[in-house]
Specification:
Helix content is about 60%, strand content about 0%. This is Carboxymuconolactone decarboxylase family protein.
């Protein structure tokens, strides 16, 4: 695979929409939700959705932000990993439930929400919900257009 089906940033409609979604992402980035949690959430959702571009991007951005490679490598197996805090585990659980929403007839289970609410205040929960929705939107756009992965440079879209 050498090129995406369409260039998302150069397409007049998608390019405008991406700028708005990215602006919403900046709001979340600047929120009190810990950046390390944000990195784990975006990486895990991207893995679940099979978005190579976003998996590459969020891994590299997290490394550039000082995150430990072992923790990032363990995101895919977070349930068995001992390198995450209880709060991070709750965020990853909510991420999986919110990303795999079609797999659960009742949506996000109450126990998953309640566990996240034990670790994050209302503002952080709002940021977490928004982040999960945004990364899923970006994943879907990139998967649909078959965005090539591997060449992302940290901070490329800053």
């Amino acid at each position: 695979m050498s090129a995406a089906r369409i260039n998302l940033l150069e397409n007049p409609t998608v390019g405008k929409a991406v700028k708005h979604v990215a602006s919403a992402g900046k709001v979340v980035h600047d929120s009190p939700l810990p950046v390390s949690t944000q990195n784990m959430v975006t990486l895990r959702a991207s893995q679940i959705n099979g978005c190579g571009f976003c998996t590459d991007m969020h891994f590299k951005d997290a490394i550039a932000a000082g995150e430990d490679a072992v923790r990032l490598n363990m995101v895919a197996a977070w349930r068995e990993a001992t390198v995450f805090t209880d709060a991070e585990r709750a965020a990853l659980d909510l991420t999986e439930a919110g990303t795999r929403i079609a797999d659960a007839a009742g949506g996000v289970p109450d126990d998953v929400w309640e566990n996240a609410a034990k670790h994050y205040d209302e503002e952080q929960l709002g940021a977490l919900v928004t982040l999960i929705a945004l990364i899923n939107a970006f994943n879907r756009m990139n998967v649909i257009v078959q965005q090539p992965a591997g060449s992302y440079q940290p901070g490329q879209f800053a």
